[in-house]
Amino acid sequence: xxxxxxxxxxxxxxxxxxxxxxxxxxxxxxxxxxxxxxxxxxxxxxxxxxxxxxxxxxxxxxxxxxxxxxxxxxxxxxxxxxxxxxxxxxxxxxxxxxxxxxxxxxxxxxxxxxxxxxxxxxxxxxxxxxxxxxxxxxxxxxxxxxxxxxxxxxxxxxxxxxxxxxxxxxxxxxxxxxxxxxxxxxxxxxxxxxxxxxxxxxxxxxxxxxxxxxxxxxxxxxxxxxxxxxxxxxxxxxxxxxxxxxxxxxxxxxxxxxxxxxxxxxxxxxxxxxxxxxxxxxxxxxxxxxxxxxxxxxxxxxxxxxxxxxxxxxxxxxxxxxxxxxxxxxxxxxxxxxxxxxxxxxxxxxxxxxxxxxxxxxxxxxxxxxxxxxxxxxxxxxxxxxxxxxxxx
Length: 393
Ligand SMILES: Cc1cc2nc3c(=O)[nH]c(=O)nc-3n(C[C@H](O)[C@H](O)[C@H](O)COP(=O)(O)O)c2cc1C
Ligand code: SF4
Known about the structure:
By secondary structure, the chain is an alpha/beta fold. The chain folds into 3 domains: about 15-215, Rossmann fold (3-Layer(aba) Sandwich); about 220-295, Ubiquitin-like (UB roll) (Roll), CATH 3.10.20; about 305-390, NADH-ubiquinone oxidoreductase 51kDa subunit, iron-sulphur binding domain (de novo design (two linked rop proteins)). Helix content is about 40%, strand content about 15%. It binds flavin mononucleotide and iron/sulfur cluster (SF4). The site of iron/sulfur cluster (SF4) has 14 residues, from helix 12 and helix 14. Flavin mononucleotide binds near residues 43, 45 and 366.
């Protein structure tokens, strides 16, 4: 599949053009267009954006909220930083269109703690949009008003999870909530709330301007559009690349200049670790969930170092609310160290830990604990040899 740039293309549509078009449409038509495009959220879970907006629009409750998740905590991901730096105008336009669609006048950008230097640039763009009447009171002569403020995160990975992000915004300890209720019905301060990733909001103006059919033609099957990938590790040209959904991981690596591949971590520490034999896998929710991060490890890398590093991260970042995640990650880290120390020497001895990984996936309260065992299962299964075969059960 060929590379096709939209979000990062040199030629960009005029600021406010999609907003103007949206305000000439009914709210229901804006939601319909986004839903028909089949765009799935770019924050990782891939929930259909139009469905989320439809639910929030239909929810009863005053003072609906639009929240942009700019926490970007997944190791290896830096694509939202690029968008916030260079495409803040499109982000604010996408949030404003979201506000119009669900009936909200208030937006918040929850910004990663390490990105405070981006605040002046985003605020400058906000001022410019206000001066053009694309943001603020009575936008473009209508009775629709919308404004955006920035709130800083404090550096916790789990606060990227939408409900702990909301808790954090409310000034509480950043811990995931029980769901239901879902944020679309009861989110920030119990108001109907949409939480969307930076890239999701940035994509919206293009869908409105070009139409859902145009968007559907990009990508593959139910995974439409293009996607940004932060490529790092053992590559000649690390950076942010835009590709159509459904591109193979091999196509990405070719463009980024990769010669020697032992493993590729797709979707961050909680994503999927693939081997050199899997480079024809397609970046889509049906095959290889795309996330935002692609980290390449060449053959000089010790994959047990990688595994230990990821598991230390999860032990550190688990909020500790639920036992499968709080205890499970510690046990998996102990197991990885036991393998390195020669205390576990066979596949047979690993069986209980693969069962533990399953329990964590099924029993953890939020996505952190549900996905943290992925690296353990993938790396042991695909990269570690035991006398009785590879680690997988
Ligand atoms: C531990 C954890 C961390 C997350 N971090 C982020 C993040 O940094 N940025 C993000 O957009 N979504 C993150 N998510 C996903 C959000 O919970 C949520 O699904 C997303 O913001 C929804 O936006 P989208 O529908 O546009 O993808 C995280 C989820 C989990 C479980
Ligand atoms: S899965 Fe982990 S991070 Fe999520 S609520 Fe449970 S302990 Fe906290």
